[in-house]
Write a structure and sequence with these properties.
By secondary structure, the chain is of the alpha/beta class. The chain contains 7 helices and 9 strands; from the N terminus they run βββαβαβαβαβαβααβ.
């Protein structure tokens, strides 16, 4: 299996998925080839969204750098799922849901993840986070920086360990997103919404869609494993929520392995 090149520049964005797009299959394993924006400092004034046409309208950042320590099976990106690996499945889901490109952020055992996954696909770029062990925030910054290099209108942030996320969920988020705002997920099955927040906190979950002008400040504010949480709380008036019927729980421990065996999300 040929590992994808790191930091390559000759990749092209994907098109949008048609309403009748077939079921998602991992990159390089039969997925159809035809298918369906950050800067600034935090805290501070939220930048004005750009008015020029984006080069790549929607770019997703797929956070896949963790070591999977709690699960104890190595990087979760390599877990087998639906005939491929979890990172292949998540990448294909984002593309099929309407993202034009995906930046995959690797960290723990990055070479093994590359060797064990087919990610050398049009619209997919793989980048390394050498500081992955410091927490998700560093991966978010690396991924957002790469995504902004494509001059997008909006940036989707997704986790590799949410096998319950389907193309329809991604498409629902993108359809609901408004310029200059953030669109967050709320999962109605499996208790994911409750897991993502305390009783007195907003129930925001991934995937998220951020206007490109907000993604940079959100990434800059991230600390440890909190991701964009502090930014969202500070700018709650900019956050819209979309309900999903499925189970968007993270696959964190052995008790969550049933997520790999559930029905294929649409």
């Amino acid at each position: 299996m040929k590992p994808p090149r790191v930091g390559k520049t000759d990749w092209s964005p994907r098109g949008r998925v048609r309403p009748d797009e077939p079921a998602v299959t991992p990159p390089g394993r039969g997925r159809p080839r035809s298918g369906p924006g950050l800067g600034g400092t935090y805290p501070g004034r939220v930048p004005t969204p750009p008015t020029t046409a984006p080069a790549t309208p929607t770019v997703a950042v797929l956070l896949a750098a963790g070591a999977g320590t709690r699960l104890g099976r190595g990087p979760k990106a390599l877990l087998p799922h639906r005939g491929g690996t979890l990172v292949e499945h998540a990448t294909a889901t984002l593309l099929a849901g309407g993202c034009d490109a995906v930046v995959v952020v690797l960290g723990a055992e990055a070479a093994r993840v590359r060797a064990g996954s087919s990610l050398d696909e049009p619209g997919v770029r793989v980048v390394d986070n050498p500081d992955w062990a410091t927490g998700m925030a560093s991966s978010l910054r690396v991924g957002v920086a790469a995504a902004l290099g494509l001059a997008p209108a909006r940036v989707v942030v997704a986790h590799v360990d949410q096998p319950g996320v389907g193309p329809d969920d991604v498409a629902r988020l993108l359809a609901a997103h408004r310029p200059g705002r953030v669109t967050a997920s709320r999962w109605l099955a499996g208790g994911a919404a409750e897991d993502a927040a305390g009783a007195d906190r907003p129930r925001w979950a991934h995937p998220l869609v951020l206007d490109a002008a907000l993604a940079g400040p959100a990434a800059a504010s991230a600390r440890g494993d909190h991701g964009a949480r502090d930014f969202l709380r500070a700018h709650a008036d900019l956050v819209d929520v979309v309900d999903h019927p499925g189970d968007g729980r993270d696959l964190d421990t052995a008790a969550d392995l049933d997520l790999l065996d559930g029905p294929a999300p649409r």
